[in-house]
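Recall that a protein's primary structure is simply its ordered list of amino acids. Everything else, from secondary elements to tertiary packing, is in principle encoded there. The following example makes that idea concrete.
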Amino acid sequence: MRSVLMSLSAILVLASACGDSSTTSSGDSPDEGTTVRPGESIQAAVDAASAGDTIVVLPGDYVESHGGDAAVRVTKPLKLIAKNSSSEVVRILPGPGQRHGILVEPETFGDPDVDGIAIDGFTIEGFQDMGIWLRHVQNFVIENNVSINNLENGIWPTLSANGEVRKNISYGSLDAALWVEAAENVRVIDNELHHSPTGLEVTISNDIHMEGNDIHDNVVGVGLYHPSGAGLPPDDWPSETFRNWTLVDNDIYDNNLPNPVSGGLVGSLPPGVGVALVGVDDVEIRDNRIHNNSFFGVVLVDWCAIQDCELNPPFFTDTSPDGIRITSNTVTGNATAPPLEGDFAAFATLASDIGSLGGLDNCASGNVAGTTIAIPELPPC
C-alpha cells in the first residue's frame, strides 16, 4: 500500500458518485451502467465492465457458479450498487468453493492499488471467511451493506487508504464484525455491529475516525489492539507508527456475549468489555455513551498484562497504552458481573467503569462515571 493523503473534497466526490441505491439507474446504456438480474452472474458483469463503470444489481438471491475463492472479485475501479426494493434485497450467498463474499484487490500481487471503489446495499451471508474484504484499495466507500454470519470477519478493509465504511450492519462473525487493519485515513461512521467476539476492531493503522456507531452484544465492543494482535505478518505492516485514532459519539453497550471461540487470541477475550485499549498509543475517546458492560466500560491495559510476553515476545516492543485522552463520556452501569474464574479472574477486583491499568501520559476529564480505577492515577486532560 502506498501512503497517500486525500483531500476532503475527493472523498465527497466519491461519496456523491455512489448515490442512494434506491435512485440508481437500472438501464443498460453506457451512461446508466450495466444491470444484473436474478439468474445472471454479478461476476460476469464485473469482468466485462470497464474501469469506472457502474453495475446495478436487482433484488434477488445470487449464487455464483465459477468456483473462485470469492463470489465476486473486483480488480478495477467500479461502483457496485444493489438496487434493493421495499420488500426484497440483493443477497449474495456462497457457491462451490467460495470463502469470501465480495473481494476487492489488484489483479496480481504488486500491481497498483485499485483506486475508486463503491460497494452499496448488498446483503452478504454465510461465507466461511470474509463478507466484504478490501486489500490494496484507495478511495473507497462501503455503505448500506449487511454482513450476516460471515465467519471470519464481516467487513475487513486491509492495506487500504482514504475511505469510508458507513451505515452498514454486521453480525455473526467469529472474529470481528468490522475490522480496519493496516489502513490509513479511514472513517467508520454510523454502523451497527453486534454478536461477534469484537464488534469494531482496529490494528496497525493510522488516522482512523470512528463516530456514530451502535455497538452492542459482542464479547468486546471496541477492541483497539496492539500490533501483536494483528492478523497480518509484520512484512505487510505500514511503515508509519500506528496512531491517531478517534472514537467519538458512539453507543457501546451490553457487550456481554459469552465468547463463542475457544483458543487463540480471539478465544482469550473476556466478555463484558465496552472499549479495550490494549497496548496502543495516541487515542482520543470523547462524547461516547458506554454502559451495561459487565467487566469494564473502558479499560487501558498493557499487552503483556494479558499475554505471556516471555513465552511469546511481541512483534512491536512498545506494549503499554500511552497518550490516551478520555473526555466527556458517559460511562455508567458497567462492572456489575466481572469474571470470577479463568484467566481474567485476577482482574475482577479492578472491574470499573473506567479502568486504567498502566501506561504513560494518559488523562481523563469531564466524564460521568461511577467507578474509576487508575494505576497510575489519571490526571485531567
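The first helix runs from residue 8 to 18. The radius of gyration is 21 Å.
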